[in-house]
Structures are given as C-alpha cells and as structure tokens.
Amino acid sequence: MTVLVTGATGNTGRHVVAELVRRGERVRALTRNPAGARLPAGVELVKGTHTAPGTLSFDGVTRLHITVTAGLADVGAELVERAVDASVRRMTIVWGGYVGPTEQAMAESGVEWTRLEPQEFMSNALTWADSVRTDGVVREPFDLPSAVVHEGDIGAVAATALVEDGHSGKVYNLTGPESLTTRERIAILGAALGRDIGLEQITRQQAIDRLLADGVSMADAEYVIGWHSDPPVEARTVDATVEQVLGRPARTFAQWVGEHLDRF
Length: 264
Hints:
By secondary structure, this protein is an alpha/beta fold. It has helices at residues 13-22, 76-85, 101-107, 129-135, 151-163, 182-193, 204-213, 218-229, 233-236, 241-246, 253-260; strands at 2-5, 26-31, 44-47, 61-67, 90-94, 112-118, 137-140, 170-174, 198-201. It contains eleven helices and nine strands.
C-alpha cells in the first residue's frame, strides 16, 4: 500500500507524512521542490502539484491525502475522479475553511473518505515572530478566544483515518484542548521566553493591508480578517475529537511554543 500525500511539505502535510512514516507506511510525497523537502528518510519524493491533476501518477497508490490550497477548487473534482479511476480506495482531506468543490467531490466519490475541519492553527503564531524579536510586541486587530489546534495533531488524525478502519464518512472538527484569547497566547509565549510581550491592537484595515503586502488576494484577505473578527462557535469551543481519535490528549499551545521557541 502506498499513500500519496499532496502538499507534503506544507503546514499540515509534512506532519501527515511524518506520522505515516512512524507507522511504517510507504509514502509518496508530492511537492513542488523535492530538493528542499526535508522529509523523513525513505519517503518517495515526486515533483508536482495537485492543482495539475492530469500530470499526476497514481501508480500503486491505494490511499490519498489532500490539503485544500489556493487554486484547487477549479480542479479538485478532477483530482478526486482520477484517483478513484486509478483504484484509490481511501481518502482524507483537510478542508479549506468551507465545503468547496473538492470536499464535495470526495464525499460523493463512492470510496472511503474522511474530512478534517481544523479551526485556527497554533502555527499562525509564527506570524508574530518578527515583531516579538524586534519590538517585543504582537500586532493583531482582535483579542478573541480561539481553541487553536496543533498542526501535528491534524497530521496524526489524518494518518489515523488513512490507516485505520472506522473513520469512513466522518467529518472531524479539530481543535486544541483550550480556548485562549490572543492575550492569553501571548502570555504563554512570554512566559516561555522569560520576558514581557505586549499586544498592540491594529485596525481591521491595517490587518487586511498587511496580508495584501504578503501577496494575499483582496478576497482572501477580507475572508481571513472577517473570520478572525467573529470566529464561529466551532473555533471558540473545545472539541474532544483529537483525543477521541488518537487516544491521547490534544497538544497544548504551551507545548507548541516549547517546540518553536527558537523562532521567536
């Protein structure tokens, strides 16, 4: 059995790969830059992108993991169709924040599928790194609670659904074990660093402009800031799914900070 992981070097994809390798599975990792992949030994690296499904080979692949990214909506249904035609019989997908064409195509594919619906990632805090290092502050427009989830837990749930039975047709809302405001997360980071870090609240427009400067489209920037201005109840409320699927507690934000302290 070979598992094809698309977006294998991305925020969650590399964790899916790592967990599958830990379980002894054969993994084929799809990435635009195999030379810079930095994935575990033994992983088969394939250059490519899931936004060009006609170029992909599913030879020997029986299971597929998809992470929804920009540009996939237009071709996602083709990607799923090609996988099914090639005898892929189990799929997982990390949604793009809503049930779009790829998510819907998978649910209607006729094969085993599991949809993961993570809310806010703990790794979003990495966007604070520069201002924390240079100015000792975090600049964000909102100070609202969010049950942020460790990207490694997302990868572990995906790997479990790909390898173990009992997850077909399930939709998993994924959160961390605590609902924390921005200030509370900053306090955890500051305690780990041994120094005070402030919150400097910026305007909604400043937050949008910051995303635009990073190359994000206006539509995506407005969607992201709109989401953060009024997070859905699923994002604010702790969900026990990670612990139920993995048989261990979801990792805390303090644990995530400890793993990434050198970035700040």
